Amino acid sequence: MTQSFDPFAELERLTTAAQSRVGTQPMPVDLYRQADEYVLSADLPGVDPGSVDVDVDGQLLTIRAERTAGEREGAKWLSQERRYGSYLRQFSIGAGIDRENISASYDNGVLSVIIPVSEKAKPRKIEVSTNSANQARATETAAVAS
């Protein structure tokens, strides 16, 4: 039985742990693989781009952000449903990732993180030789050596 390698195996466990912390807000994400990279899109509406922090430490990718409430002096709130506070998500990225070339951008409330697959982890084609080809090479090598 063949098992595929999933560098984000702990995604659900870490999501649940991060969201259960006091003060952290949920950060919904989409994650997919396209060609030789993973693409992670995280919804961070209303977050100041300067507060977004993405870092990699070993095999852990961490996203942090902060959404602060604006000052409303003298206002009498009728409804306050929008969430404010800290956002935190962590992902286990595994060994097949090119950590040096991870990039991130923030546009219209969506953080996009591009996570390239390392050269070692990319699929490659293995040439299959036949016994007759091996024998022909061995004969050629023996003839040249004589």
Overview of the molecule:
- There is one protein chain.
- The chain has 146 residues and is an alpha+beta fold.
- The protein has a single domain (11-120), classed as Immunoglobulin-like, CATH 2.60.40.790.
- Helices cover 17% and strands 33% of the residues.
- It has helices spanning 11-20, 131-145, and strands at residues 24-25, 29-34, 37-43, 53-57, 60-67, 85-92, 103-107, 110-116.
- A four-stranded mixed beta sheet has the order 1-6-5-4.
- Strand 7 and strand 8 form a beta hairpin.
- It starts with 10 loop residues before the first helix and ends with a helix.
Q: Quick one: biggest sheet?
A: 4 strands, mixed
Molecular shape:
rod-shaped
Order of helices and strands: HEEEEEEEEH
**Number of separate strands:** 8
What is the distance, rounded to the nearest whole angstrom, between the alpha carbons of the first and last residues? 48 Å
The CATH architecture can be given as Sandwich
Going across the biggest sheet, name each strand in turn: 1-6-5-4
Average predicted confidence as pLDDT? 81
Strand coverage percent: 25-35%
Oligomer class: single chain
The first-level CATH class is given as Mainly Beta
Q: Give start-end ranges of low-pLDDT stretches.
A: none
Q: Which fold name is given in CATH as the topology?
A: Immunoglobulin-like
User: What's the alpha carbon Rg, rounded to whole Å?
Assistant: 25 Å
Relative helix content: 10-25%
